[in-house]
Amino acid sequence: MAAGANATIHPLEGHSLTGPHRTTASGTAGNKAGTATGTATRRRAKSFLRNYYGIQQADAASQDGSKDNSSAPSGPTSKADPYDLDSHAFEVDKYMHKMFVEKQLPGLVQADNELVADIRQLDGDMKTLVYENYSKFLSATDTINKMKSNVDNLESEMARLTQNIGKIATSSSAIHSSLGGKREKIRQLNGVHSLLTKLQFVFELPTNLHQCLETESYTQAVKSYCRTLHLLQHYKHLTVFTGIERECKAIMVQVAQKIRQKMCSDAATITEITESVGLLLALKEDPVALWKQYLELSMSALRKVKTKTLEEIKTLPLYSAPSAASPKSAQTPTPGTPRRSTKKAARNGPNTPASTSAALGAGSTEKEKETRIKSSSPPPADKAAYLNAFFLKQLEAFVVSFMNYFLVPTAASVTPANSNSGGMAVATLGEESNGSDQRLPAWVTKDTRAQANLTREQTSEASTKVKEAVSNMISKYLDTIRSFLDYPNDIFSIEPQVHVHVLQNLYLGTQSSTGLCQLVGFDTLATGLIQNWESQLIKRALGKVKEGLMSRIVQQDVLLAQQSPRLNNNATAGDVSLSLAEPLSTASAPVFSWAIVLKETTLWLLDGFKVDTIPFLEKCMSSDAQFLETTEGRALFLKNFQDEFKTFWDLILKEMQQRSSAISPSSPALPEKEAISKVSFGSRTSSLVMSQLCFELSTSVVEQLYKTLSKTLFRVGKRNRSGSFLIESYEEPPVLPQLQWDCKAVIQACQESGHVLLDGFIARTGNELSWLVMDVRSETDYMTLESPPTGVSVAWETIYRQLNEIERQVMMVYGDEGERLGNHEISSESTRRESAFRQSGGGGGVGGGAGGGSHSGSRPSHRNDSLASFGSNTMNSRFDHQQRNMLLSNIDKLFSDRVEIFIRCQDLNRTGIMFGIIKILLKAWAESVRMKTFGKGGFQQVQVDAEFAKVWLWRFATADERLMHSLLEEAQQTAYRRCIDALPLDIHTVESIINSFER
Amino acid sequence: MEHGEHRSCAYGLRHQARCLSAIKSTDGKSSFIIGTQELSRPNEVHLLTFDEEVFEISTTIFSHPHEVWDISASKEDPDLFFTCYREVIDGKKTRSKASLWRMKHGYQEQEEDGHEGGMHHHQPRGGELEHILSLDIGDGSVKKVIWQDRTEVISVEDWRICIWDIDIKLGTAKLTGSIDTPDREFKFASAVMNPHAQEVVAVYGRSIQGWNLSSLKATFTIKDAQPALLFCVDYNPNRPFQIATGGDDCKVRIWDVRDITAGPIMTIQDHTHWVWSVAYNKFHDQLMLTSSSDCQVNLQSIVSISTGAEYKYDGDVSEGGQGADEDGEQGDNVQDPPTDGLVQAFDQHEDSVYQVAWSSVDPWLFMSLSHDGRAVMNQVPSEEKFKILLNY
């Protein structure tokens, strides 16, 4: 029973930590494991510690032993609870008293029972505890006894071991000492042996060299010789060695000669030459002569290679599809010829049998391998790559070895790295590496310092010479590359892959030719070439667009000019009044088509960019060219493009302005009217057309283009293949910030040019008409004109016809916004004015305020009104009261704004443009009248002309009729003043004269 | 008549007028003569003398028989001047004439019509014109007479330019040579003497041409080099080979006649109508006056191509002429050097200004005349004046 209790309690102990009394962990542990020795001791130890540290908290635990699990509910938290069985402060009397007070008899009995049961259990626990501890004590005693006996045994064992080890040590030292002498001897013998081998080598050297000479393995010979040279030098004082040395030298002279021969032979390849030079250097030949010869020979060899290569690449295409994609069989036919020759070159190149020398052998086997590789994976099948492989690489190899041989100042440290890097660069090509076997054999660099010990001056001389020669070569090479890049007239016919491929090869060439880059700045040259290509490409692409645009403009101009005479002829052939009666309706049809034509042009421009230029350039950019791959290269390209694009606009605008000003106006007063309308009008309209185009550009096209650019060429981030932008064109991204400034500037420039062109048109047209009215050559003698005049002067009739013509052209190009509406407005306005005249019919119309509009419907009555106002005072009295009128008109002028005649046209429509022309014309007339002296008829002519202008030209001057009238009035007054015997015509006479024109 | 910080002085002739000439006066006062142009009223020649102390214009009026189209005062004798005028014959036709007159200052004339208020000038004095000689003009009308020296004058007619030897004492004029217009299409519009050589430069149509006066051969021709009809020309008084022209495209062009193909070396467009007159300042050729039928007179600075540029900029002429402290000798408060461009636009006129002229005495004074008979005396703005004075 006790054992069973024990067994049950133990697990509880482990569990207790998670039990309800966790707060007093020690307490609970105590009360549960009161019977367990381990716990008990632990508790004791803990209580010791607790005492030591003065911790009161768990003092309650001292009573735990007597405390019962079940009576615990009162809580261990109350330390000084006298009713707590487990507490220190437990007072039996109080507890009992409480019990008595609180509980009934059955409760008390129950409590008593519980207490008894608890006590019994505690008793059992205690017993188990004692038993357990006792058994442990027994086993401990046993163990101690065992240990005691074991230790005795150990001591004797140890003593024996020590003895044995001592013995081993003595015998080992004995052996060591006994073998010592022999070892020394062996070492000496070893030394002697190696010496003997060396000596044998030395003694056999002449024979070996001979043999090498015979077998032509010069490399081996030089290698052997170089290895022994220092030995021979060292033992010079011994006759034997002197003899050998002499002998060797003699042979080596022969060898050197042979090498030279081989080097100088025509068939020598650059590889061989390099090899030979290396050997000769190792033989301490005169470096100066050597580098000169080397340079010379290499150059001639390279030239040969070049001509051969150029010969060979003639048959090659500029660009062939990537070989990986195409099957071998398909590839073979194309590069057939060159490959065979390559093989031949590879085989014929090294004349020596492959087995003779190790280095050369390695080289040639490598070559063989390469050729074999090549035949499996085809050789470069396009010109540039072929050129790179067979010429540039050779050149690079030469440069690298030359630098290694002659130009590297401290050989030992730099050379390996250099040749390594060179080799690595070549190796990175991953294609055939002709260059690798041109590196100095390792032994040469390591053992014999194959570098020529040139003085500083000699080095610099050599470097300048070689630089000269190499740059020559390189420039030829670049020329060849350049010749691959042709720019046909139709730039878009270029296959961008081809160019990019060629340039890609060039780029790769620069990447792999560190030597060349170092020596002659090959990379910068190549970058220059690429840059040049880029700008050429862009320039030509844009130039193409410009050309197209210009030719379109010319076409349109011709179209316009063609259209005009037809209409003009119609107008002149038929009754003039017919064209007058319905000028708007006849013009309305061409207006419509003309708007379409202009729209077409802008659309064409946009499409040209979208379909041709941008995809073309994008294609160039998106090809997998490495030189465009880098952000730098890309940025450069874009910068290039941006600049070119801006100049493109500038050029277009410039050309337009030049064109418009270059067409010098025809003689101001051509007698033949038709000639004027044909010659000068046709060319003049080009300014009109171009000005409208400029405005069109500035309002939408430029921004649209820049937007397109923003989302295509200049799109940040990953670029997709071209064409994608067409799909997503519905979204309108803003212009990129780096383009915004450009965009704004171009728009402004376009607008400015538009204004300049339009103002030029207005000024020119105005001037040409003015010349008619100014009568530049004084053909008319106003002094002797008959009175009364028979009709409107010829000049004014012509002007009227031309103005109609010009208006038609202007409307065709600029359109007339709300044309019908405008017409309506005008008519209503004129009727309004008409009624105003009616009201003030009798009153005096002073100065220029009086006006006459005209509308086909209400013309006759209106004219009457107009004339009535004109002649409200009788003519004579009006002109007699000139002084007063002058004063009034002067006052009028004072208060009116200053009239500016040649001024920027702000209303870009029919009204604005026509008014600009009319202003110039009328002012010119007013001015020119001042220069003349009139007779009676002359003045009357002016009167008639002015009335004619009032009646027929009001239509062009709707912008400011008041100005028109004041100018006409001024002309009349001036004429009156400048007339010798002024006799103004009767209103009715004037009217009938004008009516005669109408008929 | 003050205008801002700078003063101007106006005078009304009460006649239409289009010609004005500066008189080389001896008393240090700026004087100008103006001929009126009235077809059917008596014409006058007004001598205006500007008294700077009281800032007033005093006038002497001479009556002239016919309407005056051009007037040019002698460069030496302040009393002598030529007029080009037209007389009407029988009410049928006009004949153009050019005569030399001498002013005879006479009695104090009582005012006739009374002058309008507001004009601050002395009471007009009267005088008489003594006719000395007339030039024998051919068919066309005479545009202009240019004084070469006391004994030689040049007349510009429609279709020819004539060189005359005149003797003032005897009252005779002898034709010594003539140049016909090279282009039958266009009349001569104006001409100017080259002050550096025996050369006359004339404009006709759209062309400019120079002739050597002794050989009567053309020295240079700028033919149809610009789209405008030319009205006026002036020769840079200090710089050979530089001329300025104005015409019906509102632009003033300045040419170097040595290099015609290069086009104008400068083009100025500040007018909005035809340019009728252009005049270099005789003392500072960087100042140029232009007048136009847009009723404005413009004072232009063309320093970058003037003689000023030569010794200031050492030939390194920069357009703007920026770079204030090129030489520190002026001290710290040095004025900005003058720059190219419009210095001031004078808009006191209400009608076309056909002629403008610098005073021959005061380098900063000039007079402009509009067709309505209003003559306005103006000065170069003092700011510009100081710029020029302090920087040269």
From TrEMBL, chain A:
InterPro entries (alphabetical): Vps51
Residue ranges, compositional bias (Basic and acidic residues): 824-836
Bias (Low complexity): 23-40, 322-334, 354-364
Skewed-composition ranges (Polar residues): 59-77
Annotated spans, Disordered: 1-41, 59-84, 322-380, 824-874
Coiled coil segments of this chain: 137-171
Biased composition (Gly residues): 840-855
Protein keywords: Coiled coil, Golgi apparatus, Lipid transport, Protein transport, Transport
Gene Ontology CC annotation, any one: membrane
Keyword DNA repair among UniProt keywords: no
Cell compartments where the protein resides: Golgi apparatus, trans-Golgi network
GO biological process: endocytic recycling; Golgi organization; Golgi vesicle transport; lipid transport; protein transport; retrograde transport, endosome to Golgi
Residue ranges crossing the lipid bilayer per the database entry: none
Taxonomy, superkingdom: Eukaryota
Subunit structure comment from the entry: Component of the Golgi-associated retrograde protein (GARP) complex.
Family membership: Belongs to the VPS51 family.
Function: Acts as component of the GARP complex that is involved in retrograde transport from early and late endosomes to the trans-Golgi network (TGN).
Protein name listed in UniProt: Vacuolar protein sorting-associated protein 51 homolog
Organism: Linnemannia gamsii
Chain's gene name: VPS51
Automatic annotation (TrEMBL), chain B:
Keywords: Repeat, WD repeat
Taxonomy, superkingdom: Eukaryota
One Pfam family here: Beta-prop_EIPR1
Ranges occupied by WD repeats: 223-258
Database matches in SUPFAM superfamilies: WD40 repeat-like
Residue span of region Disordered: 314-342
Domain EIPR1-like beta-propeller stretches: 7-299
Family: Belongs to the WD repeat EIPR1 family.
Name listed for the protein in its UniProt record: Protein tssc1
Organism: Linnemannia gamsii
Gene symbol of the encoding locus: TSSC1
